[in-house]
Design a protein that fits this description.
The chain is an alpha+beta fold. It has 18 helices and 13 strands. The strands form three sheets. The chain has a seven-stranded mixed sheet, with helices on both faces. Helix 6 packs across helix 13, helix 8 packs antiparallel against helix 9 and helix 9 packs parallel to helix 12.
């Protein structure tokens, strides 16, 4: 058998499999070209799944020509490469009145980041009390010291993933050279076409620039303090300027290409990948058995590398970019604190304390939204809680929490119409509210900085000065009057000194 002649005996016939196998992993791996520095130059290897990749890329292009070649729903590049597309939690602002039934991808990333935070305090950390624990929930308080620009371009990361690209590249080159030595020019051409098509498409896709954008806040807008609720056992309180909160609730990642909006360059790369599939479909059956094995080996190395890239947690990488580069929360331990509370009622009262001071009507809207219970007992409890929360703050925003029970509970004529069971439930709800107030008091002791003072319900009058690079601003310190268990008249006062 001549080494350069077509194989007359056993034939692997892998040409059809090569065009479809591993396509999903290859598309997922391609998302890393926008994250890792220099990755767009490292796609020069014969990778599998060329037909599947071409079909997915072709749906990015928008014209009658490309729609005819690659029919299907046109998608945005950011959605295809998983930089956008997730649906976020509901957001309710306490000062501006903004209500977003659904936020976007960035808000969900932020909530997921909060879920991974360590718990700063839990019910067992409250001394001298027995807190009711039914279904534990978590509340994260996030202070946003930096307001991002309307459009920002995060810098790319450096990672060993780019260096590992030398493995499939060298494997493909070695397989191509070995086919040349064996004079198997059909397999040689198949591998070489795969290297060129993959390298060109990787470079074209990598030309997109990952950007972050959000709408600017209206001049004179109040602070954007609000709460995000995904409907589970997690609440996230965000506090900061309107444009800082906007970056979470309305911000988005996108991929900007010079060929936008038709994306003709991406369509051309999809066509090149299609031609690769057709060429390999014709050439591989003509190659020798040794050449086919070398072709398969090059695909194996490439598939392994693509599988590794696709296994990387890209959502986690996006969260790192969001926190470190966009929001510039340099110290998550100081700027984002997570608390465990025993019941949903405790969670909501704790959230309201974190959002106060604010208009009572605004707090009631948040309260009714988070606790929609509408019975006589619940309405009586809500009417009792809201004024007491407002009373915990002086007109300039200084926090004053009394040492005795902040929510002693309604009495007298207010409870005369309630049954014994309803009175018991009311007392339970008030105990939950007191447990939340105790937790918030401990939060104030734990937190090294006070809430920014404000004109009661309007814009902040904080002396915060955002520092470049994400460092937390210095806004003073807290002074606390010591608490004495034997003296219920003493109070805890948080004031700037």
């Amino acid at each position: 058998m001549a080494s350069g002649s077509p194989q007359q005996g056993f034939d692997l016939d892998i040409s059809g499999v090569a065009g479809f196998f591993g396509g999903d992993a290859s598309v997922s791996a391609m998302a890393t070209v926008h994250i890792y520095e220099g990755r767009k130059w490292l796609g020069w290897y014969n990778q599998p799944g060329s037909f599947e990749i071409a079909k997915r890329y072709g749906q990015l292009s928008r014209s009658r020509f490309w729609d005819a070649l690659y029919p299907g729903v046109n998608v945005d590049p950011a959605v295809l490469f998983e930089f956008d597309g997730m649906e976020g939690p509901k957001f309710t602002a306490v000062r501006s009145g903004t209500v977003l039934p659904k936020t976007g991808h960035v808000a969900q990333l932020f909530v997921d980041e909060c879920k991974d935070l360590p718990i700063a305090l839990s019910p067992k950390d409250i001394p001298g009390t027995k807190t009711r624990v039914a279904k534990p929930g978590f509340v994260t308080i996030a202070d946003l010291p930096h307001a991002p620009h309307p459009v920002e371009t995060p810098r790319q990361q450096r990672n060993a993933a780019s260096a590992l690209a030398c493995i499939p590249i060298l494997a493909s080159i070695a397989a191509c050279a070995s086919c040349a030595v064996l004079h198997d020019w059909y397999s040689f051409a198949s591998i070489l076409i795969g290297i060129i098509a993959s390298g060109v498409s990787c470079y074209v896709i990598g030309m997109g620039v990952l950007t972050f954008s959000h709408p600017e806040a209206a001049p004179g807008a109040p602070r954007g303090d609000g709460v995000m609720d995904s409907g589970g056992n997690e609440l996230v309180v965000v506090r900061g300027e309107e444009k800082a909160v906007n970056s979470i609730t309305r911000g988005c990642f996108s991929l900007e290409y010079d060929s936008k909006p038709q994306y003709h360059t991406i369509g051309a790369s999809a066509m090149l990948l299609t031609l690769q599939f057709l060429a390999q479909l014709l050439l591989i059956p003509q190659g020798t058995l040794h050449g086919q094995i070398l072709f398969l080996a090059s695909l194996a190395f490439s598939w392994g590398y693509n599988s590794y890239l696709s296994s990387l947690d890209k959502a986690s990488i996006q969260r790192t970019i969001l926190i470190d580069q966009v929001l510039r929360i340099a110290d998550k331990d100081a700027g984002m604190k997570k608390y465990e509370l025993g019941t949903r009622t405790q969670m909501v009262v704790f959230t309201l304390l974190a959002l106060a001071p604010a208009k009572e009507t605004a707090l009631k809207k948040v309260l009714d939204d988070l606790l929609p219970n509408d019975t006589d007992v619940w309405n009586l409890w809500k009417a009792h809680v809201l004024p007491r929360i407002a009373a915990g703050f002086s007109p300039d925003g200084t926090i004053i929490l009394e040492n005795h029970r902040l929510f002693p509970g309604p009495s007298g004529d207010a409870t005369s119409s309630l049954s014994a069971d309803e009175c018991k439930l009311l007392n339970t709800l008030c105990e939950d509210a007191n447990a939340a107030a105790m937790m918030y008091r401990m939060h104030l002791q734990l937190h090294s900085q006070p809430r920014p003072t404000s004109d009661r319900y309007g814009s902040a009058k904080s002396t915060n000065s955002s520092r470049r690079g994400g460092a937390r601003p210095s806004v003073g310190s807290l002074s606390y009057v010591p608490l004495s268990p034997s003296n219920s008249s003493e109070s805890l006062v948080a004031r700037q000194v």
